[in-house]
Amino acid sequence: MGTPFSYTAVELFDWISGKPDFILLDVRNEKEFANWSVEGPALFPYLNIPYFNFIEDVEESVAVIPPGEKIRIVCSKEGSAKYVSEQLAAHGFEDVGYLAGGIVSWGNVVIPRLVTQEDAPYSLYQMIRPGKAACGYLLISGKEAMAFDPSRNVASYIDFAKEKGAQIIKTFETHRQADYISGSIMLAKKTGATIMVKKEDFVGADFDFVAVENNQVIPCGTDGPEVKVIHTPGHTMGSTSYLIDGKYFLTGDTIFINTAGRPDLGGKSEEWSRHLYLTLTLRVRDIPDDVFILPGHYTTWDEANEDGLFMDTLGNIRKHNIAFHIPTELKFAEFIAANLRPQPGVYAHIRRVNGGWLLVEEEEADIMDLGKNECGASNYGQVGISAESNRQED
Predict the structure, then answer these.
(1) Last residue in a domain, options 106, 140, 158
(2) So what's the pLDDT on residue 1?
(3) What is the DSSP letter of 3?
(4) Could you say which of 106, 137, 154 is where a domain stops?
(5) What is the model's pLDDT at position 390?
(6) In this structure, what CATH number is given to the domain that contains residue 71?
(7) Do 139 and 231 share a domain, yes or no?
(8) Angle, CA 318 vertex, CA 313 and CA 321 arms, to 5°
(9) Residues 76 and 121 in one domain
């Protein structure tokens, strides 16, 4: 009989980024599993058999699982997965592991991926959060580092910067997030970093920040790259993108690889749709095609490039992104309306947390913060809309 072992969320990500040779068994209840599950770059066998099925009839539950396979188990908080792993081991499974910390650990894990070339004078990392389909960023030049849209797992940012011999001195927000609890407030408390935001999204915020202004240029380090502030309203009125060294455009929830950010989260869909339309057609008009877009979210792993980065040139995005192929403000508003589903109720509470007005305990924050984002203005609504089909209809 094999002895069950625990594995980490980082290990799980590494496994499903390669050629997974196991079955992932999720023992959460069917509703939780349907709402949110583990996703990665590779396809793998993924079963859902609720924990209570094993309690009620372990023989029948075990019989559903192909014998002789490696099994990796996921549950909400670890305990249920450990119990099921013991049952499988008792029934002859030799290679059984359970996720340490449960699905919460998967939801919080951050994976750094280098964007810049190895020999570049500075380093820009995409900090991928696969459990949220979100991307933060870390810019390092010499001993100084800047974070952009960090998750609340701030230790991953602090430790990684320290590993590279740097300290985080500034943390930027592209907007007041609705889908996840931002780490900037906590990062500032732990490191003394200055919080940098566009004031429109943070009027009356209950924490200290420095307001950035459109076209402002902020240096990173003594001889490092410049960060240019570009106001890109529409997802929110304070939405701001950051152009690093004239090459890398961190667009937050404004421009994604295949779509744009939804403009309805503030309850002003029609008004904000107009601003988003003008951002896409006017405010980023003069940014060159060879600039790389680095978004705040992705929809599926199909959007990643061969290096596992969610990044593409603005020229390619202008060609293939549906949001750039809608000719009028009216049609853009119609597209937005047709491609939204109701925002999760928890988003209103998360916005209050990110404004500093609502304090929550760690366990409650874990619950609020879990689940894939729903910030895109398509992909989560109608399926099958493409730039080509839109041109044909026009």
Answers:
(1) 106
(2) 63
(3) P
(4) 106
(5) 39
(6) 3.40.250.10
(7) yes
(8) 100
(9) no
Q: What pLDDT, on a 0 to 100 scale, did the predictor assign at position 88?
A: 97
The residue assigned the tokens 């790259």 is 225
CA 333 vs CA 239, 251, 252, 291: distances in Å? 18, 21, 21, 27
Rounded CA separation 291/244 (Å): 10
Active site residue 135: no
pTM of the model as a whole: 0.92
104: closest CA among 133, 74, 128? Answer: 74
Q: What is the per-residue pLDDT across 319-367, written as a single tens digit (0 to 9) for each? A: 999 999 999 999 998 888 888 777 778 888 999 999 999 999 988 888 8
Regions of the chain with pLDDT less than 70: 1, 265-267, 374-394
Cα 372–Cα 373–Cα 376 angle in degrees, nearest 5: 135
Among the options 75, 135, 220, 375, which is catalytic? 75
Question: Which pLDDT score, from 0 to 100, does residue 263 have?
Answer: 84
Check: CB of residue 54 under 8 Å from CB of residue 32: no
Query: How high is the pLDDT of residue 122?
Result: 97
Structural contact between residues 74 and 28, judged by C-beta atoms closer than 8 angstroms: yes
For residue 62, what are the CA distances in angstroms to 48, 84, 103, 311? 12, 9, 22, 42
**Distance in angstroms (rounded) separating the CA atoms of residues 21 and 16:** 9
Q: Which helix (H) or strand (E) holds 335?
A: helix 329-338
- Domain hosting 25: range is 5-106
- Beta bridge pairs of residue 197: 211
Query: Would you say residue 359 lies in a domain?
Result: no
Structurally, the chain folds into a number of domains equal to 2
Report which residue type is found at 129: R
